[in-house]
Amino acid sequence: MASEQTRNENTGSVRGSLVQARTIVGDLHFHHQPRNRGPRWGAASAVGLALLIGAAVLVRHGWWPVAVLLLAAGGLLEWWLISRAIRLGDRATSPDEAISELRRQVRDQWSAERDNRGLQEPRPLRLRWRPTQRPVQVKLTTAEKGRAELRRGELLEGTDETRPAAAALLAAFRQSPRRQLVVLGERGAGKSTLVLLFTLAALDDEAQPVPVLLSVAGWDPGERIEDWVARRVSEEYPVVPRHRAARLLADKRLLPVLDGLDEIPSELWGRALGALNRSALRMVITCRSAEFEAAVTTDGVLAHAAVVEIEPIRPDDARDFFEQRDVEGVRRWDRVIDAVIERPDGPLAELLSSPLMISLARRVYRRPSSQPEELAPRRAPRIPHRTVSGARRRLSRARNRCPWEDRVP
């Protein structure tokens, strides 16, 4: 019987204990930016400690009235020091300095995550997207139908591509008249990887807004999306206080990239879509295809969104990805790719239909001595069910060992 998969996630600040349910499989990753309090907060802390010690000494000698007066006067001094620290701390960093430091921290965070996932070893799997064929988008205008920016695209346009991965999607979004871009795909289709690489590509132009990639799972639509984004940015990146994050959003200097809209409880979908329709923010949103279609069918479309969907992986793109680490002239994956081409509706083609399973297959058969051809039949015209079932179990075990859920190298 297949083991039940449970996803546990926490976003934002944690005060107290954080409990992980069930068995932890794989690695744990913690991203923490320590808050630099500075000397002004140190002075306030020192004064507070001195007041407590002084009051304790006075009480010990029976001088209660003096201790009360000391605490009262000291409390006023402490209040002044804290207020001053807050005011000066806010002035110490200008908006330009804050946005520059935020850009650096976002780049460091997601560059490290990209490297940790192995997304460019040496090139990512070529993802392709196209305008969705699902009934989830408002009718395009005549002018929009004639534009090609968001019609189709590729993560990398060729093996010699010099632009950052996802640069084509970034250019399409910036040229689009619609302020929202929704990226659809099934589980493991590469949505999270695509927007991670989108975020890194968007950081290169300092004249453009800073992208902030956030998991939208914890959003309650009772809170305005603008307020939620400002709060989450201040929690993730303390260099930007909440009120300043709100100002940067209003000034269009931040670009929210919201990953996993489908993780919001289904009973909140109507309110969520309504809140996004009311928002004037430019943003990128990812969601699973079927869940988004169900929500739009029930609660209405996002009126200001262009909607694209990640395409199934083409056999030639899978072949290129499989052979990136092989020695020149070695063709270990030919039988697998040929079997997928010959039977595009067969069980092996279904098994290797998503970027997630393709990346896991390469991981399982990464050693030069391994034999990926065992996934494909040798002579029989039909793939033995037990062969594919065994491969599925093996890839599933590899998946459980991975510290990520939507990894597409």
From TrEMBL:
<feature type="compositionally biased region" description="Basic residues">
    <location>
        <begin position="379"/>
        <end position="396"/>
    </location>
</feature>
<feature type="transmembrane region" description="Helical">
    <location>
        <begin position="64"/>
        <end position="82"/>
    </location>
</feature>
<keyword id="KW-0812">Transmembrane</keyword>
<dbReference type="InterPro" id="IPR027417">
    <property type="entry name" value="P-loop_NTPase"/>
</dbReference>
<protein>
    <submittedName>
        <fullName>NACHT domain-containing protein</fullName>
    </submittedName>
</protein>
<keyword id="KW-1133">Transmembrane helix</keyword>
<feature type="transmembrane region" description="Helical">
    <location>
        <begin position="41"/>
        <end position="58"/>
    </location>
</feature>
<dbReference type="InterPro" id="IPR007111">
    <property type="entry name" value="NACHT_NTPase"/>
</dbReference>
<keyword id="KW-0472">Membrane</keyword>
<feature type="domain" description="NACHT">
    <location>
        <begin position="179"/>
        <end position="324"/>
    </location>
</feature>
<feature type="region of interest" description="Disordered">
    <location>
        <begin position="369"/>
        <end position="396"/>
    </location>
</feature>
<dbReference type="Pfam" id="PF05729">
    <property type="entry name" value="NACHT"/>
</dbReference>
